[in-house]
UniProtKB/TrEMBL annotation:
<feature type="region of interest" description="Disordered">
    <location>
        <begin position="94"/>
        <end position="134"/>
    </location>
</feature>
<feature type="compositionally biased region" description="Basic and acidic residues">
    <location>
        <begin position="94"/>
        <end position="109"/>
    </location>
</feature>
<protein>
    <submittedName>
        <fullName>Uncharacterized protein</fullName>
    </submittedName>
</protein>
<feature type="compositionally biased region" description="Acidic residues">
    <location>
        <begin position="110"/>
        <end position="134"/>
    </location>
</feature>
Length: 134
């Protein structure tokens, strides 16, 4: 009878204790799972932030490199075009100068020839005048 009494008193108490322990263990497991999930979420957020930062940095460097390369190419092309244009303008100016010099030289020759022919005519006229005077 004592055993029955003890079992009647002890059994419900043991079941209650065991149930509380099971509840506590389950709660601890849930808390641990929450902490693990929160830690994994934090790590994932940090990894995403790191990847985003690395991507932004790589994108910025790539963009800067492309801009520099394009700028060098554009400036190089512009310089080449300006050099070609300046050379063509120089050639045109040189041709115009040579034409002007040639034209001036021809004019000078024509004026010299006209001057000589006039002076030749004057000499002839002078000779004729001299002949008439004699």
């Amino acid at each position: 009878m004592q055993v029955e009494c003890l079992l009647q008193v002890q059994l419900p108490w043991n079941v209650g204790v065991i149930a509380e322990q099971a509840k506590r263990l389950e709660q601890d497991a849930l808390d641990t799972a929450r902490r693990i999930a929160a830690e994994e979420a934090r790590r994932a957020a940090l990894e995403r932030a790191r990847i985003k930062s690395a991507t932004d940095t790589a994108t910025r460097k790539s963009t800067d490199r492309i801009r520099n390369e394009e700028t060098e190419l554009i400036i190089g092309n512009a310089i080449s075009i300006m050099e070609n244009t300046a050379f063509k303008k120089y050639e045109q100016a040189e041709k115009a100068r040579k034409r002007a010099e040639e034209k001036a030289r021809r004019r000078a020759l024509e004026e010299d020839e006209e001057g000589e022919s006039q002076s030749g005519r004057e000499e002839e006229e002078d000779e004729e005048d001299d002949d008439e005077d004699d």
